[in-house]
Amino acid sequence: MKLTRTSAASLLMCSLILSSCAPVMNTAAQPTREQDTRVFTAAVPSTPSIAGATLYKGLYAGEHGQASYLIEVPEKWNGKLVMYAHGYAGTGAALTVAPPPIREYLVSQGYAWAASSYSSNYYDVRSGIEDTNALAQQFGALTQSKYPAPSATYIMGVSMGGNIAAAAVETETLASAKHKVNYAASMPLCGVLDPPYEFQWLGDYTLNAQELGGYGSSTYPASSFQTLLPDIKVGLFSDSSGDLWTPNTVQGTRLRDIAQNLTGGPRPVFELGFKVGALQNAVLSTGGSDGTLTGILTKNFYGNQNAVYRWTQGQTPTAAEVAYNQAVLRTTADPSANLPRADGLRWLPAINAQFKVPVLTMHTLGDFYVPFAHEQHYLQMAQKNGTSGLLVQRAIRAAGHCEFVGAEFVEAFNDWMKWASGGPKPAGDDVLTPSVVADAKYGCQFTRATRTGVDACQP
Length: 459
Fold this sequence. Notes:
alpha/beta; two-stranded antiparallel sheet; 8-stranded mixed sheet; Rossmann fold; about 450 residues
């Protein structure tokens, strides 16, 4: 599709499906998604048991087909069930399920847990929610009716699983999911909390990398992006061969600063996160995408007509930034790409921060794949919808995606569970005030280990 280059100042209302737009049910016949044609294979997990608990494992019917499951119940069960949602598992045919990162701790404290492989791979949050909910509903049957029904069920997840955990307690999900579970609380970790923004970010970064790297495209999607990527990297990085990449002093530095502004503004650990080669490769691997989330949708979800790309911090763009924004490619999202559906959840379920239970989040400051800006957007949605009193957010001084240490996991879990069980609201971080977030010591309050390359917090 040929597109013209237009001024960055031109705006289109609702170029993405915004949380403030009134939902319109999509009842028209839809073309088959690529995701609907894919075949996935579930297998009984080989996960070994641990002392002090009984582990159940097998297969059950999911949204897309069979899914694998794990359920573990301690000998001294406290009656509470924690559903664990795993992160993005790639695009392969084989489905896998894994225990939560704090499995041993959960068992030691008397919590039962359950986890699904989901019945599909790719970024299929709809299947993730439905399959996790269906597993929660079948807890009794799959444990051979040996236990009473849980006194309360909770949900936690990481990365894409954080998206699932957050969306699972949304008002829209509770109204439209096929399998409905009233979770007592949610803990999304390193999660996609604003799904439209995540795909906006991936599209924006790769578009700007191509433009600044000297190979700006005049068409969307940029089908030649991956072919050109080695040359694009040469134009941006003086070294991209190791674990940490080095941006060059002109275009690479501009790209870094554009990325900082797009992902939450100045903050500790951002520059280290920008240099992490594994995260750069993950983001750049999405370049040239057609905006359908690799077949999860049928129409383009990405638009940048209202985006202004800046590498400076002043109140107004510089002349160079104005010229750059006039030159960069513009495209428009299809407003019908992810409408509410008559057959259940949206293909990409909505997150509007409309929830009625305690939600505790945790995010690393340097995460370049699922950026810290998710936390800012989530709080802004909660403030708009009057739910911020039920939200606690914590910043961790680390560069990796979901790079939490055990002490941070356990502390967050304990505080969340005490709160969800009727205790006081725990402390969190201010994620919105720019001067607070930019402070050199930001994130020290809940960081429990000093990572390589990150300044230590002084007592």
